Amino acid sequence: MNWFRLVAGELSLALGDSATRLLLLGSVVLYAFFYPYPYSPEVQDHVPVVVVDLDHTSLSRQLIRMAGAGDRVRVAARAATLDRAKALCRSGEVQGIFLVPEGFQGKVLKGTKAEVAVWSEALSFFTYRQVATGLLSASGTLSAGIEIKRLRAAGLAEEAAFAATEPLPLQTVQLFNPAGGYGTYVVPLVFVLILQQTLLMGVGMVAGARSEAGDSSWFSPGPGLLGAVAAVSSKLVAYLLLYSIHALAYFGVLHRFYRFVARGAVCEMAVVMALFLVSVILFALTLSVLFPHRETSLFVLIGTSMPAIFLSGISWPVEVFPPWLRIFSYVIPSTAGIDGFLRVSTMGAGLGDVAKDVAILMGLVVVYFFSAVWVFFKKSGG
Questions:
Q1: Which residue of 5, 7, 17, 210 has the lowest C-beta tally within 10 Å?
Q2: What angle do CA 242, 243, 247 make, to 5 degrees?
Q3: Which UniProt keywords apply (predicted)?
């Protein structure tokens, strides 16, 4: 039993079959280029809105011009009534409504409170944010300008008028995602998940093919526990070699190509990624004995991507999970892997800052190594 031949043989099995080669190589490459592309604009700019101007004054027209001058919204239509504007929203022609009520300019000139109204499509949080912030920003800018003119007319110096209008300026800084883009947030997370899911299905396909062929030596090339250990360790190294290249391409090359934020130290990123990949491979080997046919792993595991996304905290914060679900989520390597790796790579955290995630991944490595050896030993007739 030559251990190095076992490693080479596993790579040959994984890449020699057209289906597993497509999954372990082709799909990883395709995802790398096609998944991030739709997110390249990062944010949704120039969201179409309809304006309902019931005041028809110079001040209302100025406000509408200011609303359409920014990058967030675009005045795509004008409507005479609110009902007509709502009809345009329902048809999908616009995604927001900006209404200037009758008497707007008169109230402003009298120094009384004047109001405008904004309706925005809330089915998409990103659309809602762009419409609400774009239109309210224009309203706030006009309001501040009017107040400054009033204070200047009352005899205040320009600097004092600005200070009186905004006595407590708020400076916001978008940490780790300067553009506030969705692609910068979601694509690196999904890259980690792609590595996990393709590994789980790929290893399952190889195991299913060997089970279908009646090849018990795949699970244990030698007698006893030693044979199972040799099988697990050789397969671990084979898939780790292959997926280390994928990880380097994803987070070394494509990260820079798509200009995603990268602040982490290379060695610390490598440590977290290595622990993640090892835990996923051992998890895949543990599950592999459940697949009697080559295609079984695809049917069983293809539907696990959405739960894995949810449990990792991509779509919903883990802080609001029920305690039992939060504990269960750490059974899947991507939960700690995504959190730990993204904190290191994007936020510039050190290993000490992600000690919890590192400890969980190390625990999974130990647990899944022994579980993989045990199930391989039992599968081979031990």
A1: 5
A2: 135
A3: Cell membrane, Membrane, Transmembrane, Transmembrane helix
